Amino acid sequence: MSSSSTGSRGETVPTVPSAAGVAENVESLDGADDVDVSGMLDRGRTMATPVLRAAVDRLASPMDTVAAYHFGWIDAEGRPSDADGGKAVRPALALLSAEAAGAAPEVGIPGAVAVELVHNFSLLHDDLMDGDEQRRHRDTVWKVHGPAQAILVGDALFALANEILLELDTVEAGRATRRLTVASRKLIDGQAQDISYEHRERVTVEECLEMEGNKTGALLACAVSIGAVLGGADERTADALERYGYHLGLAFQAVDDLLGIWGDPEATGKQTWSDLRQRKKSLPVVAALSAEGEAAERLGELLAADAKETDFENFSEEEFAARAALIEEAGGREWTAQEARRQHTIAVEALDSVEMPDRVRRQLVALADFVVVRKR
Predict the structure, then answer these.
(1) 14 - beta bridge partners?
(2) What is the pLDDT along the chain (376 residues), one digit of tens a residue?
């Protein structure tokens, strides 16, 4: 299939090509080799974490302890821990966002913390709704502390996010809070769509991209505009940075979808065939089902039968591997890799309309490259 259609945000969305028609792979992307991406991520984490910890300390017991466990600061017994706290892409983007507007990176810290709080609110709830028992190589909060605490702590982090911004009591803080609130609503919309799609036999590529734009793109878009807003940027600049973040989010989620099926559990911290176990209508699955040919037809038959199974969680590794092989044979894996690259290109091009220091531009491009070639 070679036609295209228009997605919910007005961009042209390609329909699914055959596997043979896809010439490029995500791993072939040329990155900005002269930029220290690890250093950028570490800076975001280092500058945001003290404020993030102070925010969490405001929570009533035992929510403060449960949140500390989720962030990797303590283990299940309450002992100090240096567990993996995530990639810290959003805090890094918020600090760069402030610099893009000509402000000091410190100006973006409240935005970085607010976005990180909303992101982790969503993780706490998502893990419970999806039944995920592992995140970042550790048991999830609901598994250790129970579903009630996962819900309460998630709600508390969401409230803290707005509190942190509004305490600044500036016009810019009000603008930033409005962007965060809209992004949060879209994120929740995306999660609702994701859940509803699990119970549908067919989902279109356009619907899947809309869902992923809400679930992942909206908050990354907020992260990369919120620091600029706090730094006094006008709406045109903030909107352009938001476009970069939105499409970066779609690239990020496309890679996540690949890792959700073919990722190495040692790297991802999740089970093998994670998304297949949860019947997720992720991009590789939807793209494969939208293709033509025997593999797509057979995959559709298997997934339709799977929806009626009551012991789906007890499927063997071989059964999940067979479904993953059909997705790949139908072109879903290669199409998703190509879509990650396409969204990466749109994201980087959005920066062209923003005047910013060349150093900051190169760092934003390097972060986009990192998102597309990451392994976890």
Answers:
(1) 4
(2) 333 433 333 343 333 333 333 333 444 444 455 789 999 999 999 999 999 999 999 999 999 999 999 999 999 999 999 877 778 999 999 999 999 999 999 999 999 999 999 999 999 999 999 888 888 889 999 999 999 999 999 999 999 999 999 999 999 999 999 999 999 999 999 999 988 887 787 899 999 999 999 999 999 999 999 999 999 999 999 999 999 999 999 999 999 999 999 988 877 667 778 888 888 889 999 999 999 899 999 999 988 887 777 666 667 888 889 999 999 999 999 999 999 999 999 999 999 999 999 999 999 999 999 988 876 6
Residue type, 357: P
Residue given tokens 């976005």 in the structure block: 115
Q: Which is it for strands 4-6 and 134-135: parallel, antiparallel or unpaired? A: unpaired
For residue 314, the tally of other CB atoms under 10 A from its CB is 8
Q: Residue 324 to residues 26, 46, 213, 296: CA-CA distances in angstroms? A: 18, 39, 24, 11
Residue type present at position 54: A
In Å, what is the CA distance from 251 to each residue of 325, 340, 341, 347?
Answer: 23, 4, 7, 9
CA distance 186 to 217: 9
Residue 147: which H helix or E strand, with range? helix 147-166
**Where along the chain do its domains lie?**
34-250+353-373
Supply the angle between the helices 89-100 and 37-56 in degrees, to the nearest 10. 100
**Which residues have C-beta within 8 Å of that of residue 347, sequence separation ≥ 6?**
243, 244, 245, 246, 247, 248, 251, 368
Domain at 34-250+353-373: CATH architecture: Orthogonal Bundle (1.10)
Entry pTM: 0.86
